[in-house]
């Protein structure tokens, strides 16, 4: 019974051995320099300003949450679009209510200025 799992076991062992060989080769053959700015974080070619403990603006989180909400809306709209004809009037009313609630939330966000970056 276990002979059917031998290819999977072989693949896992091969991947582990290959990873260990690559990590070992990197350690043995890699160049080691600890000069200047090598230890600093890379931020798109711009020198880092401030510390990592600086507060993040709340606007960032508002935009992130908005993105997630609208992403979830698309996730619910795509399956509905596939079976829209089969659902009939009830499915149409349900999606109209759903999109209306999302639209009301979006209008509320615009009114509160959550999407402005100035």
Brief sketch in words of this structure:
The chain is mainly α. It has 3 helices and no strands.
Any descriptors?
single chain; 118 residues; mainly alpha; Methane Monooxygenase Hydroxylase, Chain G, domain 1; 66% helix; 0% strand
Q: Could you please describe the fold and organization of this structure?
A:
It is a single chain. Helix 2 (58-82) packs antiparallel against helix 3 (84-112). The chain has 118 residues and is an all-alpha fold. It has helices at residues 6-29, 58-82, 84-112. The chain is built from three helices and no strands. It has one domain (2-112): Methane Monooxygenase Hydroxylase, Chain G, domain 1 (Up-down Bundle).
Which structural class should the secondary elements be placed in?
A: mainly alpha
Main β-sheet, in a few words?
none
Beginning-to-end CA distance, first to last residue? 65 Å
Reported CATH architecture: Up-down Bundle
Helix content: 55-70%
Number of helices: 3
CATH top-level class: Mainly Alpha
Instruction: Supply the CATH superfamily name.
Output: NADH:ubiquinone/plastoquinone oxidoreductase, chain 3
- SSE pattern: HHH
Please compute the radius of gyration using only Cα atoms: 26 Å
- Poorly predicted sequence stretches spanning 5 or more consecutive residues: none
- What general form does the structure show? flat
The CATH topology name reads Methane Monooxygenase Hydroxylase, Chain G, domain 1
Strand content: under 5%
Query: Mean pLDDT, rounded to whole units?
Result: 84
Give the domain tally. Answer: 1
Would you count the extended β strands for me? 0
